[in-house]
Amino acid sequence: MILRVRSFPPGVRSRAVIAASTALLLAVGRAAAPADSVAAAFPAAVRTEKVPEYEVIANYLAAFMRYVTWPPTDAASLEPLRIGVLGKDPFGPALGRILAGKSLGGRPLTAVYAASVDRLTDCRIVFINLPTPDEVAAVLAGFAGKPVLTVIYRRDPPAASVRGAVIELVRTEDNVRYLLNAGALTAQGLRPTGGLLENALNRPAILEAAKLPGTAPSPRAP
To answer: Among the ranges 22-26, 159-163, 175-179, which has the highest mean pLDDT value?
Structure first.
């Protein structure tokens, strides 16, 4: 998945934004063959459009929910599957709007916003938006070994070393891509589907290091 990004004035909605959001959600919500990926399902015309960066990131978070396999839990649970946002909310209404009406295995997807990590312990994904590296490092240390997909966003060049989150969204010129930290992924007890690995910016390095014990089949819609 490769999207170009830009900022729009407050209150202005672009047709490109609506098209991009709709296309990605269709890709996330429908059945996928094992060889499929988010990028393969994303129309080429949309991939080249320019959309606000945090709209892109919100779509990534929704996609990650389906492209990662978590350890088994109570199959009978109908509790929502939560995506947490720690720190200042950069999404505005975008994340809630993208998740509205979506579900996985009969469980609705929802967003939780908090200033304290204590309120996010039951989230499957946590997007960390804290002002200092030390604060981020402390949060990542607290989640170590827990089945939580930690995600951060930075604008550094993608060649910079991976910093400890499972997913690091990075700015590459006018695109947003992601680095997958294979060591952190397995340490959290999580498994990727083929689509997650295929679209990682550092996929060649992951395959060479052979850190992943295997990938789960690509998800099928419930």
So the answer is: 175-179
